[in-house]
Design brief:
Bound molecules: adenosine-5'-diphosphate
Strand content: 15-25%
Number of strands: 7
Order of helices and strands: EEEHHEEHEHEH
CATH topology: Leucine Aminopeptidase, subunit E, domain 1
CATH class: Alpha Beta
CATH superfamily: Leucine Aminopeptidase, subunit E, domain 1
Largest sheet: 7 strands, mixed
Helix content: 40-55%
Number of helices: 5
């Protein structure tokens, strides 16, 4: 599914985020920034040691990345030139500020992309894997945060890359309803 918001192309596709040709891809990292499972592991495997090296340098300076914040590194061996590492919230029932922390994760990723002069980026579905955020609720937050941001700031393209056809359907529904 594809639409235009402001001057930005907004695309939803099924696929593997490590294979995307956008200038940056976003990683659903953890606060330690040392890699992990899921999409984080896949990005570090595909990006290679340079990505981890830069993550370690950031850790040395600022002790990781708090939930809702974002940092940027090289893309290493990826097609994408940069990886934006953001940390989504762990779902613990919805009363611990999870919605606004997820919103912050998307917002701060877009903000650092813009500050870095990046014109195209791809997001995975942050927090909806191991972190357990209900995907329909997460999709609505993801879509609304991105739409709002790109109305004010122009990117060439923002892409959501969903790993499964089921997840893609949920995001398509959220975009249709937004
Ligand atoms: P979190 O800890 O933020 O929940 P996960 O990595 O566990 O992060 O899951 C986030 C989403 O990323 C899940 O929907 C998962 O299916 C998806 N995912 C895993 N690997 C990839 C990949 N290579 N490309 C795109 N999405 C992926």
């Amino acid at each position: 599914m594809e639409t235009v918001v402001g001057k930005t192309k907004l695309c939803l596709i099924q696929g593997d985020i490590t294979l995307q040709d956008t200038e940056a891809i976003v990683n659903a990292a953890n606060t330690r920034l040392l890699g992990g499972g899921g999409v984080d592991g896949a990005i570090h495997r595909a990006g290679g040691p340079k990505v981890l090296e830069e993550c370690k340098k950031i850790r040395a300076k600022q002790d990781g990345c708090p939930t809702g914040e974002a940092v940027i590194t090289t893309g290493g061996n990826l097609k994408a030139r940069y990886v934006i590492h953001t940390v989504g919230p762990v779902w613990t029932g919805g009363n611990k500020g999870e919605d606004s922390l997820l919103r912050n994760a998307y917002y701060n990723s877009l903000k650092i992309a813009r500050e870095s002069g990046i014109t195209s980026l791809a997001f995975p579905s942050i927090s909806t894997g191991v972190y357990g955020f209900p995907i329909d609720r997460a999709a609505a937050i993801a879509i609304s945060t991105v739409k709002q941001f790109i109305q004010g700031h122009h990117f060439k393209e923002v892409r959501f890359v969903l790993f499964s056809p089921e997840d893609l359907k949920v995001y398509e529904e959220a975009l249709t309803q937004s």
